[in-house]
Amino acid sequence: MNILVIGAGYVGLTMAVCFSELGHSVICIDKQKNKINTLLKGKLTTFEKNLDKLLIKNLKSKRLKFDISMKNVANADVVMISVGTPFDDSLNRYDQNAIYCVAKNITKFINKYTIIVIKSTVEVGTCDRVEQIIKEANPKADFDVVSIPEFLREGSAVYDFFNPDRIIMGTESQHAKDVIKKLYKPLKKKKFVFTSRCSSELIKCASNSFLATKIHFINEMADFCEKVGGNVYDVAHGMGLDKRIGVEFLKTGPGYGGGCLPKDTKALASLGKRVGANFNLIEAVICGNENRIKSFATKTLSFVENIKNAKIAFLGLAFKSGTDDCRFSPAIDIVLHLINKGTKVCVYDPAATKNARSVLKTKVSYAKNEYEAAKDADIMVFATEWKQFRSLDWAKLSKIVNSKIIFDMRNIVDRQEALKYGFECYKTGC
Ligand SMILES: NC(=O)c1ccc[n+]([C@@H]2O[C@H](COP(=O)([O-])OP(=O)(O)OC[C@H]3O[C@@H](n4cnc5c(N)ncnc54)[C@H](O)[C@@H]3O)[C@@H](O)[C@H]2O)c1
């Protein structure tokens, strides 16, 4: 099939590469020329495990192409829209201008039956609005608008594409269902869930809000464990083995972040308010998560309050491991709090430094590795759960730090090993 993907971000690029790997002929377009030029050279524009090899392979086979022109709509059987929908704080809802702009721009190129798939996370009712925009601009256009929300996780996006828990398909059109089923046919394991477009749009927001709630629950449980005793890791493990609960999203930390959970919770809560169906639970989660980020900054400072001109080695900037994404990263927010208090901070992240630099600019110093960051540091803070942070050379670190204090926000440091070399290791919820 001929597929056009619009928006070559974390979602669009992964989809384009993976659909071409399934054997489809894919063109991926983006309004950013630089991005397209980089991708045409076979270089990734985001950090994502296993995507680079597939990108090069499918570019070579010519099943995958990159471009900037909307004219490519004319040849597409399926157009997948995966442009960004950031939260607009002034409107208290998603900024969906990019979606509507694409809808207007593709209209004149629709010259045969075409399926328009909304992959971006959107407010309920968006597919209806997109359909209306296209109909008004081109009453003769033969098309269906379908909602297929995306559930991939940055860091395991390729795996998630090929092993989806479910593929939600929001459409009433049998023709669209048949074409989309054909599109996913080469996927070995798949489970379709057919719904209305509205329900499909809501499933995405509801899922992310539920996941945020799960994270916040275990974070509050971690605080509780610190007060009453007990180890949140053991509590989460014991809880998660219950199939009704599940082990995922029960890891404590400095709060949830990224390009999805913060905005999707806010969008659901604010829409709830607007329609008179308050999501009190989600509102509490949003507020609790914001407070948690601030309290982790305060806690960090409390460990070094008696040290004059303390230097902080801050390890991990991405909102989670496996990605270079710093959007709404708790780590970045915490660093900003620390800088505002006049603290000297040296940061290191294996993948996200470039993105972090655009926010932190020259307010921090940047290290090339953990050891350079730790040199003369008074505290080592672990804010992202990168695997490589689990196996540091504590003997080496003990010789280069100024004070042997660790604040392990993600519970990834081997405390016994660090203790052997005289470090005090503060963990979260244990
Ligand atoms: N990142 C994730 O893990 C994830 C997971 C599931 C769903 N989503 C949702 O998918 C959507 C995309 O997210 P993302 O993280 O890939 O965003 P992103 O910001 O990484 O990428 C969006 C891309 O769209 C391009 N774009 C914007 N307007 C355009 C236009 N008019 N024409 C062509 N290109 C245009 C941008 O240049 C950018 O490259 C969002 O709605 C997001 O909520 C994201």
Give a concise summary:
This protein has 430 residues and is α/β, with parallel strands linked by helices. The chain is 43% helix and 15% strand.
Structure overview:
The protein is of the alpha/beta class and 430 residues long. The chain folds into two domains: 2-195, Rossmann fold (3-Layer(aba) Sandwich), CATH 3.40.50.720; 200-430, NAD(P)-binding Rossmann-like Domain (Rossmann fold, 3-Layer(aba) Sandwich), CATH 3.40.50. The chain has 16 helices and 16 strands. It has helices spanning 10-21, 33-40, 51-60, 97-107, 126-137, 157-162, 174-184, 197-228, 232-240, 261-275, 280-303, 330-340, 353-360, 370-374, 394-400, 415-420; strands spanning 2-6, 25-29, 64-67, 78-81, 87-88, 93-94, 114-118, 143-147, 167-170, 192-195, 311-315, 344-348, 365-366, 379-382, 405-408, 424-426. It has a six-stranded parallel beta sheet, with helices on both faces. Strand 7 (114-118), helix 5 and strand 8 (143-147) form a beta-alpha-beta unit. It is globular, with a radius of gyration of 23 Å. The N and C termini lie far apart (53 Å). The mean pLDDT is 97. Bound molecules: nicotinamide-adenine-dinucleotide. The site of nicotinamide-adenine-dinucleotide has 26 residues, from helix 1 and helix 4. Nicotinamide-adenine-dinucleotide (NAD) binds at residues 6-12, 29-32, 35, 82-85, 98, 101-102, 120-121, 150, 152, 154, 259-260.
